[in-house]
Amino acid sequence: MSEVDLNRQAGRLLVDLDGPAAWNMAVDQAIMESTSEASTAATRSSASGPAATLRFYTWQRPTLSLGYFQSHQDAWRFFGADVDGGSVDALGVDVVRRSTGGGAIMHHHELTYSLTLATPVGQRGARQDLYQSMHAIIAELLAENGITSAAYRNDRPIHFDSESFLCFQRRTDEDLVVSGYKVLGSAQRRGRASLLQHGSLLFRTSPQTPQLPGLENLTGHRQTFDDWVNRISERVAACLNLSLSPGKLSATEQQRAEKVAEQRFRDRNWLQRR
C-alpha cells in the first residue's frame, strides 16, 4: 500500500446489477442507517465503519420512482392507467416511492449511483459542495469524451415548469445540462449521522419517456455502464480522499434492507401515502 493510500479514509465500492425496485431503494436506506450507527459509535469508542460507500446499480425492470412528496395518482395518470395501477404493471413497469424529494424518474437506460458519507451527529441541511463535486466529476468525464455540459446555474437558456411531474423536465442549479437537456440530477437525505446522495445519469431515451433524450441521443456517443463505474469511482476517491475497495453489504445491512423493502418500499400504503 502506498503512502498516499495510508493517508486516505477507507471507502467501500458496491456494484449491484438488475435489482428489483424496492430492493434498490431499501439498500440505500440500509446503508444510510448503518453508516449513522457506525459514525455514532465512533464518537464513543475506536469503532468505525467505512467513511463512505459509493454504490452503482441498475434496475430489473423499467421503474418509475416517485419523489417523496408526489401523488401516486399522478403516476397512474402519467401512464394513462387505472387507479389501482394494474395496467402499469401490465406495461412491464414498476413504481416505487423514493425517500428523497423531487420529481419522478424513469429508471431505464441510465446509470444510478448513491454516495453515503458519515457525518457529525445531528448535522443538518444540504451539502451543496457534494452536489457540485459529484456533478463536476461527471462533467469533466464528459468533456474528456468531447461532450460539452454545464451546471444549470451556468446555462439557463430554456424556461421550464418547476412543477413538472418528471424530474428530468425540472431544473435546479446543480443539474447537468447537455444541449439544453438535463442529463444528470441528484437528491440528498440526511440520517442521524450520515448523508445519502443518489442520482441518475441518463444514457438514452426510454420508450416510456420519449420526451427525454439521453447522452447517446444528444451526442451519438455510446455509453457503457462498466466504463462509467470505473471512471467515476477513480475521481470520487481522489476528490474525497478515499481508498475505495470493492465490498458487499454486511449481514446486518442485508437483513435491514430486507426488512425495509418489505415494510416500506414494497408496501402499497407507503406508495399510496400521498
Automatic annotation (TrEMBL):
Keyword field contains Cytoplasm: no
Listed EC numbers: 2.3.1.181
Enzyme class label: transferase
Keyword Acyltransferase included in the entry's annotation: yes
Residue ranges of every copy of the BPL/LPL catalytic domain listed in the record: 48-244
UniProt entry keywords in alphabetical sequence: Acyltransferase, Transferase
InterPro entries linked: aa-tRNA-synth_II/BPL/LPL, BPL_LPL_catalytic, Octanoyltrans_LipM/LipL
GO MF, one example: lipoyl(octanoyl) transferase activity
Name of the protein described by the UniProt record: Octanoyltransferase LipM
